[in-house]
Amino acid sequence: MQLGSNYAILQLDQAPAHTSSAISWPENIIPLFQPPSAPDLNPIERLW
């Protein structure tokens, strides 16, 4: 999927794989890291 000139905010937990400096984010994708120990911000927690 290509965003073109649109921007996207991607919410991520702080798993080591998500915060690696090896990840090269495109300019129009903004990673938003949730604070550690914040289950109320994790959408999957609503299922449990």
Summarize this entry quickly:
With 48 residues, this protein is mainly beta.
Order of helices and strands: EE
**Major sheet:** 2 strands, parallel
- The overall pLDDT average reads 78
Strand content: 15-25%
Describe what this molecule looks like in 3D.
- The protein has 48 residues and is mostly beta strands.
- It has one domain (8-47).
- It has no helices and 2 strands.
- It has a two-stranded parallel sheet with strand order 1-2.
- The model has no long low-confidence stretch (mean pLDDT 78).
Keywords:
0% helix; 48 residues; globular; mainly beta; 21% strand
Element layout with pairings:
Elements: E1 8-12, E2 29-33
